[in-house]
Amino acid sequence: MADNDLTDPIQARAQDCAAAIGALFSGVFDTLQRWRSLVEASTAWGAGDIDPAVYAMVEPELTAADPRLIGAGFVAAPGVVRGGGLHFAWWLGPLEDNPILGTTTEPSRLDLASREYADYLRDLSALEWYRVPETTGARHITGPYVDHLCTCDYILTLTVPVNVGGSMAGVVGADLLVRRLERDALPLMRAVGAPSVLVSAAGRVVVSTDPALPVGTLVAPDAAPDAAPDAGPAAGGVIACPGTDLNIRMRIDR
């Protein structure tokens, strides 16, 4: 905790909230770890075509009833798959009134050739969701950020490194729509009983019950939400969500 003045009931509810959100993300990472094992063990590497195997593993998650994932797949390191170039085995789940793809009822393959503005993807080392797992060898949460490539909405990208033959062969990953995450997180955060925000390691607001701190707002490291105008003095607290680099930050008006 950042401030021991938080009352015990609020602290207890905040701990429960952080634990529940941590469990939600741990569930997604468990799925990614399973996919990682499947990709690493796939015999499709020898044939040079990993795509059918990747689609078979992500399709059930993307087409599940009320799915949490809006996109998922495998991004290969340069030179690993076919032809030596950039290779995205990535699919988007069914979409409603998407600005790029319209309304779809089945998963759609990400087609980089049709995206004239996708040149920034040519340098994977410049992309956080790839660079951090490559550097650390660990899983990572990137965002929230606006996905201009596919969803045109705020997303989080979760990635886990894939290793083949002793070196990193790419990442398996999944995209979560922030507005879908809100449906799970907001009831938990409202139950805390104090204005609360879910914040990324980079200090970006992911989900908020404070109208003064919308999604994407950059907040100071380890700071609680700013007091509302004329709210008087406030205490704050910061509680980590287990298994993630996210945290819950609260404001207690006095």
Strand count, sense and closure of the main sheet?
6 strands, antiparallel
CATH top level of the largest domain? Alpha Beta
CATH architecture of the largest domain: 2-Layer Sandwich
Widest β-sheet, arrangement of strands? 3-2-1-6-5-4
CATH superfamily of the largest domain: PAS domain
CATH topology of the largest domain: Beta-Lactamase
Indicate the mean pLDDT: 83
Structural features, described:
It is a single chain. Helix 1 runs antiparallel to helix 5. This protein has two domains: about 10-20 and about 180-254, Beta-Lactamase (2-Layer Sandwich); about 25-180, PAS domain (Beta-Lactamase). It is built from five helices and ten strands. The strands form two sheets. A six-stranded antiparallel beta sheet has the order 3-2-1-6-5-4, sandwiched between helices. Strands 8-7-10-9 form a four-stranded antiparallel beta sheet. The protein is of the alpha+beta class and about 250 residues long. The protein is about 30% helix and about 25% strand. The protein has helices spanning about 10-40, 45, 50-60, 130-135, 180-190; strands at about 70-75, 85-90, 110, 140-145, 155-165, 165-175, 195-200, 205-210, 235-240, 245-254.
Produce a short descriptive summary.
With 254 residues, the protein is of the alpha+beta class. It has helices at residues 8-41, 44-47, 51-62, 128-136, 178-190, and strands at 69-76, 87-92, 108-109, 140-146, 154-164, 167-177, 196-199, 205-208, 234-240, 247-253.
Task: Supply the key terms.
alpha+beta; Beta-Lactamase; 2 domains; 26% strand; 6-stranded antiparallel β-sheet; 4-stranded antiparallel β-sheet; 254 residues; 5 helices; globular
